[in-house]
Amino acid sequence: MRRLASAVLPFILRAALLAGLAALPGCAILRAPQAVDVDYFTLDAVPGETAAGGSGRLTLEVSPARDFPGFDSARMVYVKRPSELDYFARNRWVDTPARMLTPLLVQALERSGAFRAVVRGSGPVTAQLRLDSEVVRLQQEFLHKPSRVRLTVRVQLIDLAGRRVLGSREFDVSEPAPSDDPYGGVIAANQVLRRVLGEVVEFCRARAASASALGQSTP
Q: Please, which of 13, 28, 151, 205 could form a disulfide with 192 given CB 3.0 to 4.6 Å?
């Protein structure tokens, strides 16, 4: 009988302990996880006006853009102190900045009329030029009031036939946010992206025209 009591006693103590924990208010181990509502946003800057007709002689391939470390996720970045990245907990992009940028680059370059054709990524179409790009940063900066959104994109235009770099440039643009919150940052992000798209188009147009004039690439 004594042996049975000693065997049952640990189970009784364990049950009493669990019952006591359950009675404690707000006990973490019994609290059900709370669902967090997340708002998703997209970059949808409208490129410039469509050109009346394409006058370019060259076909441009736009390779998938890359994200700089720290910006290679859908998390929305904000900065309160220089060189320190933070992320909004309840606000996200629908995809990484680079994946959102690539189709917008293609659309802007198509609408420019500066090229005979613009193709996305490597494919069956032979291109004479290739545009490589990287999103260095896309962040909302709370270093001053009002907050500002800063977008930095690095591009490189390559002559595939001549195997040479026609030009490289880093576009760094910022814009004040209409409100110091994530949605204000989204509005400002699309404004800076619209400016960057226009500058990238002009950069590619000028470099392609120079390459075509010098006969460095042939259609």
A: 151
* CATH label of the domain that carries residue 101: 3.40.50.10610
Q: What is the pLDDT of residues 137-151, one digit of tens each?
A: 999 999 999 999 999
Answer whether residue 3 is part of any domain.
Answer: no
pLDDT tens figures, 4-50 = 444 444 554 455 544 554 554 554 555 656 667 899 999 998 766 65
Number of other residues whose CB lies within 10 A of the CB of residue 218: 10
Task: For residues 183 and 116, give the distance between their C-alpha atoms in angstroms, rounded to a whole number.
Answer: 38
Q: How far is CA 50 from CA 46, 191, 198, in A?
A: 11, 19, 12
Range of the domain at 191: 39-213
Q: Are strands 148-159 and 164-176 parallel, antiparallel or unpaired?
A: antiparallel
- Phi, psi of 66, rounded to the nearest 5 degrees: -110, 155
Give me Rg for the CA atoms of the chain: 27
